[in-house]
Specification:
single chain, alpha/beta, 23 helices, about 40% helix, about 15% strand
């Protein structure tokens, strides 16, 4: 299944005047090329090829066709074309985390089935030299000797090959970098999608004989390509598929990329109402009972919108990270495939063990995979870094964690490897209610489907729940960045240094300075209540004080302390109990609310009155407790402190 592209042939030397010699050289070049193709085919069958210094790995290639033309080493997935075109399903919804090769898979389909005149520069893809062509030829050559299983495989391959360059394609990306949340943003998004549909129509309009179309379809094509405002754009994809099916005499293949890009994780209902309405009409009309569509493949990350936008599609094969079906191995690399890619080029400062620890462990159904984007980036860049973690934004996740301490503390526990999270499988298909955000009600399902967590074990198809955990070092770093963000992104390095200094020396000044630093670096809009300060401090301390036990809302004495820090090293004797107060006031109530100094003393008194130090007696190394009462107002703070000996 593995292949690498052709190497450039030796150029003909310039200045050769003898036409016979030049002709001979050209013939030698052609013969050498044919031998190279034969050698390459044998290499593909064997899955091996000699190491070369000229090999590069496809990081950020613009289209499937450039894999072969660009001299890249890559994994050939063309055999999975038969799982689309020989399948009894007409519609496919494939859901995987970002940077897993979804767009490349759609481009492969487009290059395979698309009308060559329409594809233009992307038409030069010789699928006969890919796995699908090689396997088909192999089975045809020994057709009389095939076993029953191989006979079925050949039938599927032949049926799939019959689609080759035969169907008009509609490839539409719904990607936007920022999901719209305002009326203006929604209008801009809808206009952008109209422009993309119009561009597809214009490209077909330039190559077809419009006179061959009925008058009503000629007019519709003209309105589509001219981006007419009086055209009913919610019918755009349906009308375009009708035009193409009429002209080419074959049904269209519709390919939708990033169908859930406009999903807003913190917006109530998950999506702006105008965007939802437009997309629901656009996709439903295009795909549901559309006699002009042969197949459709829809790509995305989450399943939340399926029930809201694609609910009318009954004959749809849904492949997600729990039930991936036949597409389980496609969007990731196996151990064998990583070894193959690694051997393609010498990367002396990267070891296979490094790749495994950093990027392996994503479990899709019952299949364990490497992160493909990170593996390719690592081999091309020759450094084991966090490539995938830097390709997405986590602000929405951070915002949700600042509001919900129970989720924050659970994620922190998962990050440290102390626990897993159990979720009901049906939550992956839930549609956010109008009164809740996606992250508000479906937080853990979001983290699974977006790739920040993985199944803890391969799923055998039994049971209604699954456990989630962090399964590799890059995933761990991505979650650490989220937790750091809850504390403070802009000042995390300074805050960490102060906390680490406190951990080593027990110096109260370092601890207070770290808290001040974290608070000053946080956005004022995130400092609105006591829980906000609590969550920010807890996240930073939990990530930084790795040799301390960081406990939040731990029961002790006659109540629950806000934050408790317990040193794990025997030589460290001082634990810390922190109680937080928040001064909320307006001009009308300012005189009635205690000042920060008074609130800080009240927080300290609460620690003593409720005997929060009691639970620390069970730690043999702890001899004293630093009791710290802190009062906040916006970015200002005051504190009161007292040291108590642990009674033995």
């Amino acid at each position: 299944m593995v292949t690498s592209s052709k190497q450039p042939h030796q150029e003909i030397k310039k200045g050769v005047k003898n036409k016979i010699r030049k002709s001979q050289k050209l013939q030698e070049r052609k013969d050498n090329g044919n031998e190279h193709q034969k050698d390459q085919s044998r290499d593909r069958k064997k899955g091996t090829k000699s190491k070369t210094r000229n090999v590069h790995y496809p990081v950020g290639v613009d289209h499937f066709s450039t894999l072969e033309l660009g001299g890249y080493a890559f994994i050939d997935r063309t055999l999975y074309l038969k799982d689309v075109f020989a399948s009894g399903f007409n519609h496919f919804l494939i859901l995987r985390p970002r940077r897993s090769g979804k767009s490349l898979f759609l481009q492969m389909i487009e290059s395979f089935v698309g009308i060559q005149n329409y594809l233009g520069k992307y038409k030069n893809v010789d699928f006969s030299s890919y796995e699908i062509g090689i396997r088909r030829k192999e089975l045809l050559e020994r057709q009389e000797l095939l076993c029953e299983e191989e006979e079925v495989e050949l039938l599927d391959l032949q049926k799939t090959w019959g689609y080759r360059s035969q169907h008009p394609t509609i490839y539409l990306s719904l990607y936007v970098p920022d999901p719209p949340s305002s009326d203006g943003g929604a209008a801009d998004f809808i206009e952008l999608i109209k422009q993309r549909i119009s561009a597809i129509a214009e490209k077909y309009r330039a190559i077809i004989d419009r006179k061959a179309l009925p008058k009503v379809l000629r007019r519709a094509l003209r309105m589509l390509s001219n981006l007419r405002t009086d055209f009913p754009w919610h019918t755009g994809l349906y009308r375009l598929s009708e035009i193409l099916a009429e002209y080419y005499g074959r049904k269209a293949v519709v390919l939708i990329d990033e169908y859930d890009s406009s999903l807003h994780f913190t917006l109530k209902g998950g999506m702006h109402s105008k965007v939802r309405s437009f997309l629901m009409n656009l996709l439903s009309l295009a795909l549901k009972d559309n006699v002009h569509v042969e197949k459709s493949v829809v790509m995305g990350t989450t399943r939340f919108l399926k029930n809201g936008m694609l609910s009318g599609l009954n004959n749809m094969n849904i492949s997600d990270v729990i039930h991936p079906g036949e597409f389980a191995p496609v969007f990731g690399f196996s151990e064998e495939e990583v070894r193959f890619l690694y051997k393609k080029k010498s990367v002396s400062n990267v070891q296979l063990a490094d790749l495994k620890a950093k990027y392996n462990g994503y479990i899709v159904g019952d299949t364990r995979l490497y992160n493909p984007w990170s593996v390719m980036s690592c081999l091309e860049g020759k450094n084991v870094l966090n490539y995938w973690a830097g390709t997405g934004t986590v602000e929405n996740i951070i915002e949700a964690l600042r509001k919900d301490f129970s989720i924050l503390s659970k994620l922190a526990s998962v990050w440290k490897g102390e626990s897993t999270v159990s979720i009901e499988i049906e939550r992956l298909a839930a549609y956010p209610r109008s009164e809740e955000s996606v992250l508000g009600g479906l937080f853990w399902a979001v983290l699974l489907q977006t790739g920040y967590l993985s199944l803890s074990e391969p799923y055998d198809g039994k049971g209604s729940t699954v456990d989630l955990k962090i399964t590799n070092l890059e995933m761990k770093e991505a979650v650490r960045q989220i937790l750091d963000g809850v504390g403070s992104v802009s000042c995390s390095a300074s805050s960490k240094k102060l906390l680490q200094s406190f951990a080593a020396s027990g110096n109260l000044g370092d601890l207070v300075s770290a808290i001040e630093d974290i608070t000053l670096a946080s956005s004022s809009k995130n400092l609105t209540r006591e829980e906000s300060y609590h969550n920010i401090l807890f996240a930073m301390m939990y990530c930084t004080l790795t040799n301390w036990l960081v406990i939040s809302e731990g029961e002790s004495g006659h109540g629950f302390s806000d934050i408790c820090l317990v040193p794990l090293a025997d030589q460290q004797k001082t634990a810390v109990v922190i109680e937080i107060k928040h001064r909320k006031s307006s001009k009308a109530t300012a005189s009635k609310v205690p000042d920060l100094d008074t609130l800080a003393r009240e927080a300290l008194k609460q620690i003593e009155d409720k005997n929060y130090c009691f639970a620390l007696k069970k730690y043999a190394n702890v001899e004293e407790v630093l009791c710290l009462g802190i009062a906040f107002s916006h970015k200002s703070l005051k504190y009161a402190v007292k040291y108590n000996k642990i009674a033995t």
